[in-house]
């Protein structure tokens, strides 16, 4: 109900993170006053045991808070490392993209040279000196074959870079998805713990 939610909200605001420390301290003060005003030894011993129990609960709560704090610090350091790794991966990806663009330009130049050699070969075929023409054609053929091998090597490298870049992008996407899932899971766990502690106080 709205009344119950409002009561829980006020208790959480008063009690900080809702661990019950404010209630335990109040209980400890009351137990101490009763212990001071106890009329019999048995009653004093009972109040003394209650104070010890309350102190143990406060120490346990403090230890739990410190553990959570240390865990959050380690988690922040881990996230910072992951972010740096992602930034380094993105920078490496940009470098690979730049290298691929250079290789593409080189492949275009090779293709243009090949077209020029093809045109030159056609002109040479009409040369009146057949012997010299055959020599020139043989030389051009070797050069074209060499250029073809170079072009194939460049194309193979380009294909390999494309695959590597695709794998890199997939890895970055998976890392980002893992971070988002971890954050959602952490928020869900904190919400569940808060709700369970609030219900336990009722």
Automatic annotation (TrEMBL):
Residues 76-103 form a coiled coil. It is found in: Nucleus. It comes from the Eukaryota. Keywords: Coiled coil, Nucleus. Signal peptide: none annotated. One of its GO terms (biological process) is mRNA processing. GO terms for cellular component: THO complex part of transcription export complex. Residues 181-202 are annotated as: Disordered. Belongs to the THOC7 family. Component of the THO subcomplex of the TREX complex which is thought to couple mRNA transcription, processing and nuclear export, and which specifically associates with spliced mRNA and not with unspliced pre-mRNA. Required for efficient export of polyadenylated RNA. Plays a key structural role in the oligomerization of the THO-DDX39B complex. This is THOC7 protein. It comes from Gymnorhina tibicen.
């Amino acid at each position: 109900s709205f009344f119950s939610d409002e009561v829980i909200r006020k208790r959480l605001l008063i009690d900080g993170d809702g661990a019950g420390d404010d209630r335990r301290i109040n209980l400890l003060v009351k137990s101490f006053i009763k212990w001071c005003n106890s009329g019999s030894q048995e009653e004093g011993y009972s109040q003394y045991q209650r104070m010890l129990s309350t102190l143990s609960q406060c120490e346990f709560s403090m230890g739990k808070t410190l553990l959570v704090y240390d865990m959050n610090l380690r988690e922040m350091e881990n996230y910072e490392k992951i972010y740096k790794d992602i930034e380094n991966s993105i920078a490496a990806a940009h470098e690979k993209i730049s290298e691929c663009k250079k290789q593409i330009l080189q492949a275009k130049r090779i293709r243009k040279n090949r077209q020029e050699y093809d045109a030159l070969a056609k002109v040479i075929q009409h040369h009146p000196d057949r012997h010299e023409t055959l020599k020139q054609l043989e030389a051009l053929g070797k050069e074209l074959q060499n250029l073809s091998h170079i072009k194939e090597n460049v194309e193979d490298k380009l294909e390999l870079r494309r695959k590597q870049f695709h794998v890199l992008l997939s890895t970055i996407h998976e890392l980002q998805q893992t971070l988002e899932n971890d954050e959602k899971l952490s928020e869900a766990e904190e919400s569940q713990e808060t709700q369970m502690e609030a219900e336990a106080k009722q």
